[in-house]
Design a protein that fits this description.
The complex is a heterotrimer. Chain A is α+β, with helices and mostly antiparallel strands. Chain A has helices at residues 4-13, 102-113, 129-138, 198-211, and strands at 16-22, 27-31, 39-40, 54-60, 63-68, 73-78, 86-87, 92-99, 115-118, 123-127, 144-145, 150-156, 159-164, 170-175, 182-183, 188-193. In chain A, strand 4 (54-60) and strand 5 (63-68) form a beta hairpin. By secondary structure, chain C is α/β, with parallel strands linked by helices. In chain C, a hairpin with a 2-residue loop joins strand 15 (575-582) and strand 16. Classes of the chains: A alpha+beta, B alpha+beta, C alpha/beta.
Chain lengths: 216, 455, 753
Amino acid sequence: MKDVKALLEEMKSAPYKLVEVAAPHTGVVEHVLTEPGTKVTGPQGSWGERPGTLLAHLERERNKKAIRAPMRGEVEKVFTEHAGRFVEAGTVLYTLRHYLTKDEVIQEILKKTLYLFHAREQAKYYFFPEADTKIKAYGPQSVRVRDGQDLFIVSRMKRESVLPYSGPEGMIYAVYFKDNHSVEAGQPLIGVCPPDQLPLIQDVVNRVKSEWEERG
Amino acid sequence: MRIVQACVKLGLDFVCVHTAADAHSGHVRLAREQGGPGSLYRISSYQDANELLAVADDAGATALHPGYGFFAEDFRFARRVTERTRALTWIGPSWRVIRDLGDKINTKRLARGLGVPTVPGSDRPLYDEPEAEEIAANLFSFQREQDVARPVVLLKASAGGGGMGIEEIHDIDSFRMTYRRIRNYAKRQFGDEGVLVEQRIFDFNHLEVQILCDRHGGEPLHFGTRNCSVQSTGRQKRIEVAPGFVPAELRYSFDAAAVLEAVKDHSLAIAREAGYDSVGTWEWIVTPRGEPFLMEVNTRIQVENGVSAVISRIGGKGGVDLIAEQIRCALGERPGYTQKDITFEGVGIEYRLIAEDPDNKFTPWAGRIDSFSWESAPWLSVHTQVPTDEPYQIPTDFDPNLALAIIWGKDLAEAKARGLEFLDKLVLGGTDSTGVELKSNVEFLRHKTENLLVF
Amino acid sequence: MDIEKRIQSLAARLKYIQDIFAEREDANIELLHSKLKDFTDNGGAMSAQEAARQVEALEDLYAFLEKKLERELTPMDKVRIVRHPQRICLKDILENVYDNYTEIGGEGEYNIDPSVLIARAYITRRVGGKVYNQPIMVIGQEKGHGEEFRNGGSVKPWGNAKAQHYMQVAETENIPIHTYVFTPGAYPLEDYPGAAQQIARNLYEMAGLKVPVIAVFSEGGSGGAEAIGLADVRLMLSHGYYSVISPEGAAAIEGRLRGGQRASAELIETCARRLKITADDNRTMGYVDRVIQEPPLGARPEHYDFFKVLRSEVIRATDEVVLNVRGWKFFRAMTLSAQRNKRNASAEDIYVRWTLSAGARDRLVWRRYQRFRRMSRHAYIDNSPLTKKVERLAREAGWSVYSFFKYDFFRKHKKKFTHMLEEIGSEFQVVRDKAAVPLRWARRALAPGRAAVCSEEAGKSLTELSCWDKGSCDTPGVYVSPQAREDRVLTCTNAETHGCKDLWAPDLFGDFAGVCPTCGHHFRMEYQWYLHNVFDYGSIFEFSRSVESGNPLDYDGLSAKLEKAKAETGLKSACVTFEARIKHVNVICATLVGTFRGGSVGAAEGEKFVRAAERARKKHYPFIAYVHGTAGIRIQEGVNGVIQMPRCTMAVRRYIEAGGLYIVVYDTNSYAGPVASFLGCSPYQFAIRSANIGFAGPGVIKETTGLDIPPNYHVAHQALSRGHIHGIWDRRDVRANLNQALQTMGGRNLYYR
């Protein structure tokens, strides 16, 4: 088990991450926010029904789409050279400095303390139906896994195969992949917490909750 | 890639799109070499029409080639390209033609109206159970009359496709149950109760006729036939051979030369009737008794066009490029030659090299290719997006096609021998992330070469 | 002690006056204030006698000035009166108007909905030395002098369901119903049974209730009021209000305010005046029958005299209703009508039995229908000349006669005849089959070669072009949406979650009928699309074209807005009624067009709807209400709009009970009044996918309940799972689904059955 305190200190020294906001597709960019340092918010409300701060417009085929801030933070850099220009898909338009929230810090530390089960190959991953319904209904912590249990469905090249879980027995503490999104080889799929480490994990959570100050 | 080559050959400017995942593909490299960085655009998805058109506008393009797949047979896309405010020239048949011939039922009716043979059965969706049952019963007696040992009738959901909602019946007693099941499935799935009833044909050969028409209503031209009968279990083509049969070298139980003539004539008749105005492929099946039936029309240039080109001579000269011809005609030029000027010489074989496991239901293999090379020869051309000088990671989003190899020989025997020679000298190796060796269909291709065109 | 009490009561009166007149500066109020202050400041020094005298003077002054102030009351002041916690409430009425009562369904807050109060009450009359106990079902909203749990008389859906239940009980027991309307509006929750749908059910119930219903309005807030307000006699307290919307709500709409902004006091005041919400206004427009005069500045629980007046009024109203439909009535009816003009005459002097015979019950419902049918006739514009009107009436009568003979009289006999023919036919078939056995055998033996010939023909049928019977494959008319003519692309709302590609407008609106091919999201289509794609080509025949939306309240700015809407849409009202055919079945369709003032319903729309329902009834046609969109009742028409809720519901009920088929199809957004009445009461309600259906929009819900609601609160699938609608249709299937519905649903009296 890693030294949680040290990890926390390390994160405190750089309490933010940089997020790139890129053009989702080609089109002509029109910046709305041009001042670096402006505070922006991500989607808000109980259902995320209030959208994030409007950053720019991207117009393609006479269809103007809003590009909004994906999360809270402040604008680090605006790539104004693209203003009024046609950009390719994936062109970076903004970088945002996002101060980590407690939950994100917890996730980050957990990633370093939990047992991680990695993707073997690049593919789309899904949970087995039983586990899937449980996770969707009650959250990942409701599922216990043990070595050799058939847990994943790997979908690649339109073909599906079963991937059993291997590693220590325990409950799934975190899920790192999304349905319908391709996962690269070597990326973690789930974080598993063995039962004997549960108090330790709880300790991490509590410590972060009390010590971490959210900013921005 | 071959489109870029054709543009270069015709002296046309071009731009090319690619996705982030494909940034290292062959066509991107070729485009960069030939057209410079300004001829490349990174887009979010090949399947998003808006991306293509936005790029076309920004680049100031005047014409658009839809490639082989996705959009080439999408009449809505063709219509949009030609009818939007800033209209572009569509390199392909006009959208009405795509729409009319893209509908299989419509094609079948068009064919029957011209006396072109089609698979026996209904040529329109049936909604009335007694009527459908009568047709099925007729089909059974029809097949028995033709001495089919085990007659089979197919029931299809007319709105379906891709193998969904198809069932076969072996006797008329099971008709009602199956019919109702299909009808209910069709209604649920496609919102349309129509059912097609057709004869199921076994052990057929798959023939294609390559057609070229200009935009001015000129006489349709053909570039011979192809035989695409070597397929994977999923009905994916693996080897194409031109011409469709070689009566000179092999014995057939029917008059093969007459069949080839018949399918060409019928195809031209339909092209004429439909007002066809681009490159297209007429797909036929030929039964072991030598009866040809029109299956469908592919209103686009196909990957295997090269194998027809390699045996074609225009005014006695080789080096035919059908993509270039397609672009020329689409831009309004006339071919400048007639059917008389088109002659054929020798036999062409096209191999599709694919990273897959033929022993295991053609399961695709994805991984890194470390070595890939072949010995070049004047009778060989290889089209590949895989680099030969550096490792290449196969993208997982598409089928793992590696290369197309087109081989020419003065007759079938020579073509087969050269084909085997190519396969023998091919170097192909790699591993995937779990350490499994590359799997490819080379052995499968070698095995199938033995009996090419035997029917 | 006594003086102190009196002073306290005066202070309370002053406080009340100040509440009513809000912050308004008024010399009279100033005077009252200073006089009272003078007295309390100096009161201690005075002798008892002197104090008593002064208090009396003060009391007189108060009474005098209250009368004076009474004349200055603005409509908004009256709104404040009815909302004041000291306003009389239903409990007070039960205590003071009725002789005995038992509350049913709860005790204080232990109640399924404490804002609805139901009581079995008695009125005891002593006439000619005899004592008569007359039972009544009392239903009303209870504001409870500001008790928190009463929710201010804002009734939840289940509260209205309770009311509906006890209306049925009263009907079974054959006793009259007295309803008391004390509600600012219904509580806009969608949970089952649903605010809108339950009000619709209540209206539907009341439209055919076979017992006398007397309604007394104090605070009549829109839909909530209608839920118990459809009555044979509608009385109104003089200081009450009856309105389509609260003045604040109207002001918010008028000022185009969003998200919790407050309208200015003046604007609210203006709106209150413009909406014509007072008792006298409603009396003039004919929506209430009589006004019951309250004491100056409104009735409060201590006004015992007022309760006496109220008692006599409700008794008289009940008597009237009963006598009007009863055979034996002559003198009593005369006395009653004479009494109405006399003061102090008590209705209790004569006795009328309140139970009704079977015939009288039917007459009661018929009279109620007639009554509402006649309402709001002044509120729309009908430009057709008199001859046309007469012609219309004559034609309608003609249809009735024709339908009767064709579908009722003739059909009965025809059916018998065809049944008999069928029987004979099948008997004959059996005989013929038996006789033909040897014949067939012989034929087969003689001609073995014929089978081969047959199969050759069959073979031809399998390989040659068949004849596609064009008649079976119908081709609806071609309609190109103007949206399909633009070269632009649109983004599907579900693009984020379903990965839908942007769609080119000509594809989307031309080929896909406005449906996203990836996720099935329905974009908005014009109502004309339906006219062309649902009904048989060229079969549409519009009627009632002459009925036009007007501005009955002379509401500021409405006329201009109507002109604009009429010019933009080419329509004369938001309702288009027409006859058409669906696969050769004649139907009558009423369409609410969402682009004409938001599809809001006013007097003209209601009238057209009622006429359409009557036409469908007379012709024995199915009746389809296609709701392209409706934002509710047109608030600028005030009660003229609200009254369409009961009017149309009654017409619909009459149609359904005559054995028709009433189908409602919702598209885009359908909210409020119409859903809470003539639409929501249909047994066959379907929604086009991506439609929103509800009582109040998210903003209003937030405003009135303080609840945050999820963004998908009103979507069709939620409405389906709540049981508000009965199916969701894809736009492209509407024609087929309607055809299916026409063939399989509905009552006994459709012409094609």
